[in-house]
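FW: tagging you since you asked about this chain on Friday. Here's the raw sequence from the shared folder, copied in full. Didn't touch anything.
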Amino acid sequence: MKIFDIIVFGAGSGGLNSAAFANRIGLSTQLIDKSDANIGGDCLNFGCIPSKALIHVARAVRASRSLQEFGITVTSVVDMKAVMSYVKNRRDIIREHENAEWFRKKGMTVALRMASFTGRREVKVADTIYRGRKIILATGSRPRKISLPGMERVPVFNNENIFNIDFLPKHLVIIGGGPIGMEIGQAFQSLGSQVTILERGKNFLPKEDKKVTEILYRRLKRDGVQVHFNAEAKEICADGLLRLHVGEEERRIPVDALFAGVGRQLNIDGLDLERADIELDPSGQKLKVDDYLRCTNKDVLVCGDMVGKYQFTHAAELHAGLIIRNLLSPWKKKLSNAHLSWVTFTDPEIATFGISKNELKSRGLQYEVIRQSFEEDDRAITDDHRDGLLKMFIGKGGKILGGTMIAASAGELVQELILAQTHGMTLGNLFDKIYPYPTAARINTRAAGQYMGTQDNSEDGAHTAKTLSPFRVNGPCDSLS
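HL: got it, structure written out here
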C-alpha cells in the first residue's frame, strides 16, 4: 500500500490549489479525479471560464447593435457554432496548464478513475488502495435537475451542457434567478434570443441589496428580458407553450429551450463516506464541517463547494490556503469569510464585498451607510453608464466594513475597496489618493469625499452629498483655476 502525505479528491479549484501547494513544499501528493477532461473542475469546464467567454461575445454583439445611434447598422444573425468555438478555444488555452500530464511533470501522482473511501485514511482507485496522512475532499457540486411535465418536448440545458449548444433559441426560458441564470439569460438576450426568467421568490439574486437589483431589473427590461417573480413553471404543453403560474394567475408563454439554474448539490455519491466515518448534517445533503474545515473524521478536510454557503472559485482558494496553513502550523486558524467578495457578471456587474448589513447587525457593530450614485460621475457620463450605485458600510473612524456596487466593470472598480476593507483602511486613505482624471475608479474617492464632507442626516445613517473644501474637488479637474 502506497502512503502519501496528502491525498486530494477532486481537481477543481480547491483541489488543485491544495495539491499544488502541498506538492510545492515537498509533501508527497496524490491528486484524484475521474478523468483528464474533468481536471479544472466546474470553473474551467462549465462555469467561470466558458460563461465569461460567452458574456464577452454577447457584450460585443450588443455593442455592435448599439452603433445604430451613430449611423452604423448591423443586421446579421449570430452564428452560435462560431460563438461556442470561441468559448471552447478560450477554455482550451487555460487547459494547457490544467491537465494530468502537466501535474505529473510537477511531481504529483495523478490517478484518473472513480475513487471511494475504504477506511478513515484509505481510498480505493480501481483495484488499488492508497493511504493518506491527511485527505482533502474537494469533489465540488453539480446543478440540480428539474422535473417538469412535457419537458421532453424541448432541449433542457444547465451550466454543464449550455456551452455545447449549436443553435440560438428563439424563446429561451430560464428557471431560477440566481447568478448563473441571470448571467446566461442576459447573454442570450444580447445574442438574439427572447429570454424569460422565472423566479420563485420576490427578488432575483436574493443575496444582493434590493436597491442594487432594482437597477439591474431596469436594465434587463430595457434590453427586452422578461422577468416574472413569484413564478413557477407547471408544464410544457403540446402546442409548444409553457404553462406557468405567476402568483395566482396562470399564463402561457412560448418556449424553444429551457435553462435550469435552480441550485447545486454536492458530488458525494459513490464516495462511501460512511467507511471513513464522515457524517452528513440532518438534511443529508451537506457534510458536517467544523470551523477548521474538518469533517467528523478530523483527518479528512473539505475544500470548495463541499464547505457550503459560498460556492465560488476564490472561496475554494481561501479554503485551500487555510487547510495548508493549518497542516503546517501548531496554531490552528478558523475559517473567516469577513473579507470575502464576489461578482455577478451581468451588465452592469454587481460586486459585493466584506461584512454584510445583516452580519453587522448580528454582531452588534456600529456602522453608517453611504451611497454614491454614478449619475453625476464624469466618466460614467462619457461612457453612458450613469445607472450605477456604490453603497458602503462605514465603521468608527471611517473604517470600511463592507459594501456593494453595481456598475459597468464593478468587479474591477471595487478592488481597491476590497483591499482597504481587508487591511482595515479608512475612507480617509482613499480620499488622500490622487486619482487620474477621468478614470472610472474616481467613484471611490467621490464616496470618500461625500463621507468626509457630510453629517448623519437620515434614519439609517445614510449620507448625502455636501459641499467640500475647494481644495479637494471631484469635478472636472484636481487643480484650481
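FW: Residues 455-459, 463-481 have pLDDT under 50 and may be disordered.
HL: agreed, and The longest strand covers residues 128-137.
FW: great, closing this out.
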